[in-house]
Design a protein that fits this description.
Elements (H helix, E strand, L loop, with lengths): L3 H17 E4 L3 E7 L2 E6 L2 E4 L5 E8 L3 E11 L5 E12 L2 H6 L4 H18 L3 H6 L1 H16 L4 E12 L2 H79 L4 H20 L7 E2 L3 H18 L19 E2 L1
Antiparallel strand pairs: 1-4, 2-3, 2-5, 6-7, 7-8, 9-10
Helix pairs in contact: 3-5, 6-7, 7-8
């Protein structure tokens, strides 16, 4: 019997250690109940409870958790059935509220998310559901976070994980996408051809402008040349007229020789001429040239000295060879 007392004392000591001294790990919080009533929350670390009076009520995970929402079928506003699932990121902020204000917290949040997911997706058409996931996430987050606030839970974010339309709708969407891309390709090609045509027209316009500018400049140069030629001809005529007025016969010989040479040159250049006409007497042409030279000497002589008259032989009519 004597050895039973130490055993009882050791067992009592172990019982007290196990039930009185509590170590709370990081990321967890324990609620303390006194005779079944919540009194306080134990933070991470070591704590001591009142023996036989206080006990641990709930062990609450305070870390952020990921809740997988099961897939469900939802009918959109335009009567298309789509399969939708989501994931929810939650974090308990108040351990006592999460422990005592709702039973089975995870199940409650899952059902709340599914219900609101049906509501949000059902109020939108299929095209909006497929293209506006961010809007769905935002609306769900605002609704569920407000609903879970009394439970001491913070909903960090909600993401639509998958949206699956029916197979026939998927095929129709693929054909629609293909047609839309072909339409864009045709529009792009037409736009390119339009730009190319505009560029070509602009180039032709610039070329025409430059060509017109060239013709204008050429005409101006030609007119200027004719004007200068006319001025030179007028001056020559004036000099010749002055020489004729003074009785110089060489001036008349100058004009005769000029017309003679011009007529012979035109006759030789004619494409229809089958024979070449040459003067029968080259001495007459030589005399004419000598008369022209004498006229030049007369016009350039000193003090207006009297010119020496040189009468060239009269040219004979040309004969054909």
């Amino acid at each position: 019997m004597s050895f039973l007392v130490p055993l009882v004392l050791v067992a009592l000591a172990l019982f007290l250690v196990v039930n009185v001294i509590k170590i709370v790990p990081q990321g967890r919080e324990f609620t303390v109940e006194r005779f079944g009533r919540y009194t306080r929350t134990l933070k991470p670390g070591i704590s001591i409870l009142t023996p036989f009076v206080e006990s641990i009520g709930r062990r609450v995970n305070m870390m952020e958790q990921v809740l997988d929402v099961p897939q469900q079928e939802v009918i959109t506003k335009d009567n298309v059935s789509v399969k939708v699932d989501a994931i929810v990121f939650i974090q308990v902020m108040e351990a006592s509220q999460a422990a005592y204000r709702v039973d089975n917290l995870m199940y409650a949040i899952t059902q709340l998310t599914q219900t609101n997911l049906r509501t949000v997706v059902g109020s939108m058409e299929l095209d909006e559901v497929l293209s506006q996931r961010d809007l769905i996430n935002t609306r769900l987050l605002a609704t569920i976070d407000h609903a879970t606030n009394p439970w001491g839970v913070k909903v960090a974010r909600i993401e639509i994980k998958d949206l699956t339309p029916p197979a026939d709708i998927t095929n129709a969407m693929a054909r629609q996408m293909k047609a839309e891309r072909e339409r864009r390709a045709v529009i792009t090609e037409a736009e390119g051809e339009k730009q190319a045509a505009i560029a070509r027209a602009e180039g032709q316009k610039q070329a025409a402008i430059l060509e017109a500018e060239g013709r204008k400049e050429a005409a101006f140069r030609t007119a200027e040349a004719r004007e200068r030629s006319a001025e030179a001809e007028a001056k020559a005529t004036a000099f010749v007229s002055e020489a004729i007025a003074k009785g110089d016969v060489n001036a008349i010989n100058y004009f005769i020789a000029q017309k003679y040479v011009e007529a012979f040159g035109e006759l030789a250049k004619s494409p229809n001429a089958k024979t070449v006409i040459v003067p029968a007497d080259f001495a007459g042409l030589t005399g004419t040239v000598a008369g022209v030279a004498e006229l030049v000497k007369t016009l350039g002589g000193n003090g207006g000295a009297a010119a020496r008259t040189v009468v060239p032989p009269t040219p004979k009519p040309p004969r054909g060879v």
